[in-house]
Design brief:
disordered C terminus; 8-stranded mixed β-sheet; 4-stranded parallel β-sheet; alpha/beta; single chain; Rossmann fold; 22 helices; Glucose Oxidase, domain 1; 580 residues; 14 strands
Length: 580
């Protein structure tokens, strides 16, 4: 796309809003002058800085300083930056789950972009749901946009070992339950886990979605993996402030960048880095905002074609700061060059191929060669069968190889509280062949689709025998930091009347990941008989946003977005700059 010779400011939304020579224009200028700005400032394009900073979000606590760096860049390039806040979601501090509120943040952000006199926007986010929420909003509002994420926190150190929250919390908590470490050990671990601000330093959902923003072309190259406290993150933020002015001048919008080819590129990067299974839901939601029909079959096809290359926790021993030192996402994309759409446009105004032309891998321990991968297939596989007619996912790169083909009797739980009570408090015993089934955890069932899949405990009797993984199946999500052989997003979910709802203790379940199968080994007539007698759970909410969620949320394979947001209105797909 060629740049415009000069920006015609009379065509900008901010000009129509604030430079009018009438009473409304005078009033708006007067109120901005109350903040200390002058006519010289007010005559420049207004660049919104959408910030998810919050003291209840340690992933984002430094975004105020990042915003100041963005502002420097905007001022340098001739723009007028104005910062505003939206809801900030952190999985640790929001109940019952941040996934319940991702769509609310997306709606709030979209409306803020539409309602305010913004010519373009810089999106500042860091944690799991804020990044996809902002990308969903940007895709719908479709004004020039660029993303800057907060970056991963520094790796912790525990007795000579690099540790990452929350992967090593899961691991050491199992050792504690097995009696192998003490309360004093746990206290030392807790104090060592998070030595800085920033999002999780393994390939959890936050790191994954930052990588997806970069792979989609919505972030400057190299931005995803820079540690949160590294000065280069502020340099990148300043450069992003300058670049958003170029995007405005060239009228490059999210719809120009977020193409089917861009989503293919992002999926391949996700598979190569062993990214979070949550990325499947979020990428589908972003794509559907643009009318792109991104399916589970597409993910599985690209996973079969894209090898797993990056030895980052929870699938390997290294951290995001090691990935940064090894060359970051540009190096991963350079390794994937034969598989990528190199002509896809990005926020640099250049193509993917141009962006990665000089990228190289600096550490082969962290990023393996394409022709010598860590595993021949990508990190995520899609399963179907009589237990998951419309699909389920598994992070095969973080699963136990011996459980990728398995058959065993089901042990069924109807809530996260029940499984914790029975297995942890009541010390329920089971066999290593048992298939643990946790249901009513989907978008409708929990409600909100929490990350209870990754926290499904292993019985103490098995831990004391040295067993650290069993097959677990659920319609929940799983934290990207979690690991183990856990089948997720089983669909239709139990609360929607899927076969998962009628699994009984002792039913045989069989998984075959290479064949992409997940089956309930019960006669189909018996399954249908049980389903005919099944009744859905009682509706828990009847007012406010939560009732809206229950009335309109889609299933995981459709991105868990709201049905009325996923539909694209051709009249607003590419809105005019001038406001009516």
């Amino acid at each position: 796309m060629t740049a415009e010779p000069a920006l015609d400011r009379t065509q900008l939304r901010s000009y129509a809003w604030g430079q009018r020579r009438d009473q409304a224009g005078m009033t708006r200028r007067a109120f901005l002058k109350a903040e200390g700005y002058t006519d010289e400032d007010l005559g420049k394009p207004i660049i919104g800085i959408c910030n998810t900073w919050s003291e209840l979000n340690p992933c984002n606590i430094h975004l105020r300083q990042v915003a100041e760096a963005v502002k420097r860049g905007v001022w340098q390039a001739g723009g007028f930056p104005l910062e505003f806040n939206t809801l900030s979601l952190n999985e640790v501090f929001w109940a019952p789950t941040t996934m319940l509120y991702r769509n609310l943040v997306a709606m709030e952000t979209e409306e803020a972009l539409r309602a305010q006199p913004l010519d373009a926007v810089v999106l500042l986010a860091s944690c799991d749901k804020t990044v996809p929420a902002q990308l969903m909003a940007a895709a719908s509002a479709n004004i020039p946009a660029i993303m800057v994420t907060g970056g991963p926190l520094l790796s912790g150190r525990f007795r000579g070992e690099d540790i990452g929250v929350s992967t090593d919390i899961y691991r050491y908590w199992n050792e504690y339950r097995a009696g192998n470490i003490t309360d004093e050990d746990l206290a030392e671990l807790e104090n060592s886990m998070c030595p800085s601000c920033g999002h999780c330093t393994i390939v959890g959902t936050a790191s994954t979605m930052a990588a997806m923003a970069e792979a989609l072309g919505m972030m400057l190259p190299g931005g995803a993996a820079i540690p949160a406290v590294d000065a280069r993150r502020y340099q990148l933020a300043e450069a992003s402030g300058r670049q958003i002015m170029r995007l405005l001048e060239q009228d490059i919008r999210p719809s120009d960048i977020l193409t089917p080819e861009a989503f293919d590129n992002a999926i391949r990067v996700c598979m190569a880095i062993g990214g979070s299974t949550n990325a499947v839901i979020h990428l589908i939601a972003i794509a559907r905002r643009l009318g792109i029909d991104l399916t589970l079959d597409r993910f599985d096809r690209l996973s079969r074609e894209t090898p797993y290359l990056c030895a980052i926790k929870p699938s390997g021993p290294y951290m995001m700061e090691h990935l940064f030192e090894a060359g970051g996402i540009p190096a991963v994309m350079a390794e994937l060059r034969p598989l990528l759409h190199l002509d896809a446009l990005t926020v640099t105004g250049k193509t993917v191929g141009e962006n990665i032309a000089r990228a190289r891998v600096r550490d082969r321990r962290v990023i393996a060669p394409l022709d010598q991968p860590l595993r021949p297939e990508g990190g995520i596989a899609v399963l179907r069968g009589s237990l998951a007619p419309t699909g389920a996912v598994i992070k095969q790169s973080a699963a136990s190889p011996h459980l990728l083909r398995h058959r065993g009797p089901a042990l069924v739980f109807n809530s996260a509280e029940e499984i914790q009570r029975r297995i942890v408090q009541e010390r329920l015993e089971a066999s290593e062949d048992t298939v643990f089934v946790l249901r009513y955890q989907g978008p409708l069932g929990a409600p909100g689709m929490p990350e209870s899949g990754g926290s499904m405990p292993i019985p103490e009797n098995l831990l004391k025998r040295g067993i650290r993984d069993v097959l677990r199946i659920t319609d929940a999500r799983m934290s990207g930091t979690a690991y183990g052989t856990i089948v997720l997003h089983v669909e239709p979910e139990a609360a929607a009347g899927g076969p998962l709802a009628v699994v009984q203790d002792g039913d045989e379940i069989e998984i075959d990941v290479p064949a992409r199968r997940l089956d309930l080994l019960v006669d189909e007539r018996e399954i249908q008989r049980r389903l005919a007698q099944w009744r859905p759970p009682e509706r828990p909410w009847n007012r406010g946003y939560r009732a809206l969620f229950l009335d309109h949320v889609l299933q995981a394979s459709q991105g868990c977005d709201f049905d009325f947001l996923a539909k694209v209105d051709p009249e607003t797909y590419r809105p005019p700059r001038r406001r009516a």
